[in-house]
Amino acid sequence: MEVWFIEPPPTLDWQPSSGVSTAGRRHPSLNFTGEQVYSYINLSAAAVLRKAGHTVRYTHCQTEGIDRAALVSKIREFPTGLIVIMAEHINWGVTAAIIREIRQESDAHVVLVGPLATALDHEVMNRLEPDYILRREWDLSVLALSRSLADGTPLEEVPGLTYRRGGALQRTPDSPLVEDLDALPFPAYDLVRLDRFYESVFKRFPAATTITSRGCPYRCVFCAFPETIYDHRYRAQSPERVLEEARFLYRDHGVREIRYDDDTFEVDRDRVFKICENFRSARMDLVWAPQCRPGNVDLELARAMKQAGCTFILYGVESGVDDILQKIRKGTTTERIRQGVRAAQQAGIDVLNCVMIGFYWDTRETIRETIAFAFELNAEFTQFSMPVPLPGTVYWDFLVGEGVIRPDDWLRSDSFHGLGFDLPHVSASELQQILRKTYRRYCTRPRYVWMMVRRAGRSR
Q1: Whole-Å CA distances, 439 to 30, 279, 373, 385
Q2: What is the pLDDT confidence band of residue 414, given thresholds at 50, 70 and 90?
Q3: CA distance 89 to 67
Q4: Which of 276, 290, 436, 448 is the most exposed place for a label (fewest CB within 10 A)?
Q5: Which pTM was predicted?
């Protein structure tokens, strides 16, 4: 069977010249910075299918300059087979339109995947009307569905499947987690143009983004991927497999930077030291950057990472108030965050701190404290944002229970492009104003400007 992965345009009226793109993976957003991302799970599923003998095609509309009209022309050339789309809260309207156009132009089956489809499979089936939804990890379940459609085997045997039978929605048991990540083939990076992807934190190009582990043992209330896709059970590639894939990207695709988008790259400390040892021995002209929890990174670990080619670490700081950290179940303290940031900086690693203002429990005072904490940390890069509730998370359920949002608010695009609702102690409009002023203040402080001047003298 031929399987076609489509990563849709960001908006219904998008044109290549519009300047809008989709950024972020865990909390996708529309932006005008030029950032472009791809789904590495889609590429993994494509590799699994190809290894099993299926024909695979892949269309990343944004980097290929394909608007809806051009996509419809391609759909006419794809009369049968299976089309896979990752439905997201910011592109559900585009996805619904594409599904309608597929119905008119093709006999292909449509399956939706991803956190939104997993969390709200019944609602998404009724609103967007795909043929199928595959819940949770879909590397292997797309293969099972393709086999079922090709061979006529019962759909009941496809794990994690939501589908219709006789007008009624049916659900098979959730697909099992991929236990042996080393057994998966390398993602099919050749299906995308890596030189067309950009994130603001990249330092060298071409760059690639991938993962070395799945499942986060921590339980932050706002994080969708562990709740919907990966689960909280940690599973990791071996250090040898991590190096093997890095070599493959370096040698076969010319990649010079890898972004590791693991939930918590550093959970297995011994594994990280072994990965660092392997990278040092390999002597590739390659840099890399992981996502970590600052409370788990000390100076010894940071120095080992730096010596192995790590140039920056993305930290989830979230709040500068211990009470808020406790309420969002972050499992850390401001002091541990402070220590982790200092350890990375002392080792010569740049830090990207992700800070969120506007949790349900935030007041004007706690927001001021969080901003002051971010200024104190003085990271080379700091991303200030608002905590957008995503379906499937504890935070979403909590806000629905408090009456702050409605269960169908995922249909309101304004709820996900900023904060489309007021909180008990601060309004959405006030938060937007605070956010704009905070970015300006952060980047014009003498301490920050002096740090950037010194960096400019050391490196282009």
Answers
A1: 18, 36, 14, 10
A2: very low
A3: 19
A4: 436
A5: 0.94
